[in-house]
Amino acid sequence: MNACIRGVVIVMTAISTAVALAACGQDAGNDSHGGNTLTIGLLLPDITTTRWETQDEPLLEKKITELCHNCKLEHVNAKGDVATQREQMDSMITRGVDAIMLVAVDSRALGAAVKKAHAAGIPVIAYDRLAEGPISGYVSFDGEEVGRLQGRALLKAMGTKARTGEIVMMNGDPSDPNAVSFKKGALSVLEGRVKIGKAYDILQWRPETANLDMSGAISALGVAHIQGVYAANDGLAAGAISALKANKVAPLPPVTGQDAELAALRRMVGGDQYMTVYKPFGPEASTGAAMAVAAVRHESLDRVTTGKVRVRGGKTVPAALLTPVSVTVDNIKNTLVKDGVYTVQQICTPRLRAACGKAGLT
């Protein structure tokens, strides 16, 4: 990962306080712009990860509107294509948006576009993924801790089989700095404790690629030797599980995940996926929105962040890293349901009713 994160205080209450302070100043900010509409552009990377459109975008729009009555959010989705995202970025720069929130498809490839925005006086907030170039701020989760949570959960689920079996690693796209961090964190837990039979880096986080790679791993290693699957997110978990089922693997080995997608929770209740990592979308969106609003008002981002991140070239920028949460079927109710991300009714389809009852999801 092309960044060295230092002094980032991972404290949810501190971030909540910072966001509240930003809200307190919203009236003065609106008055100072005389009611002119301020446009914040949001560039999302893909549609394969459902959180971008179903969680982050609506949460960001809601929070930005609350903090700034004369701000509007315009969002586009690159659908996994770097060239498309470059064009979308160029379009926003040309139209003169007031700030950009960027979830880069490829952080290195978008570096030149970030420089172009900076030259045009448009601040860029790196959202969820650290982007290269002169960004103004960064908000995300501790990526290495995500990987550590996944690795620990996988070893726990494997139990004594970790000593004799092998695992397959389905890592994310290496062009995504987060994927690099997840992998590093997971390996810090797994290496030396379990044999990694096969490992794959899945370009663009495509579930269909994970499906093909998992089928290849089954052929190469044999069903009996695969005792666990490290999948970096829920989409890759879905692809791997589909391949395991197609190859008549039963019982399924424990499979990790990330993003707490609704389909993943249903797989967990049904016994197909062991765990996921929940990255509370609300706090991330609240902090990101506060940073974007501060940026369009030409205010310091330090008042809505909790630390610094050092980017390529040695510059440090305001940053906030939030705390991820490990979720298994046993604590779905006390995490995602409690936080209002999903209802029990959404998770518990008729087919899963009995399993939900057993899991305490009633």
How would you concisely characterize the structure shown here?
This protein has 362 residues and is of the alpha/beta class.
Describe the SSE topology.
Elements: E1 4-6, H1 12-24, H2 26-32, E2 38-44, H3 51-67, E3 71-77, H4 82-95, E4 99-102, H5 111-119, E5 124-127, E6 137-141, H6 143-158, E7 166-171, H7 177-190, E8 195-201, H8 207-221, E9 226-231, H9 234-246, H10 262-270, E10 275-278, H11 281-296, E11 307-310, E12 316-322, E13 325-328, H12 333-337, H13 344-347, H14 353-358
Parallel strand pairs: 2-3, 2-4, 4-5, 5-6, 6-12, 7-8, 7-9
Antiparallel strand pairs: 1-11, 10-13, 11-12
Q: What is the overall silhouette?
A: globular
Number of domains: 2
Query: Could you tell me the radius of gyration in angstroms?
Result: 21 Å
Helix and strand string, N-terminal first?
EHHEHEHEHEEHEHEHEHHEHEEEHHH
Strand runs, count: 13
The helix fraction, in percent, is: 40-55%
Name given to the CATH architecture of the largest domain: 3-Layer(aba) Sandwich
Spatial arrangement of strands, main beta sheet? 1-11-12-6-5-4-2-3
Which topology of the largest domain does CATH recognise?
Rossmann fold
* Spatial separation of the terminal alpha carbons: 42 Å
Number of helices: 14
State the name of the first-level CATH class of the largest domain. Alpha Beta
SSE class: alpha/beta
* Biggest sheet overview: 8 strands, mixed
Report the mean per-residue pLDDT as an integer.
91
CATH superfamily of the largest domain: Response regulator
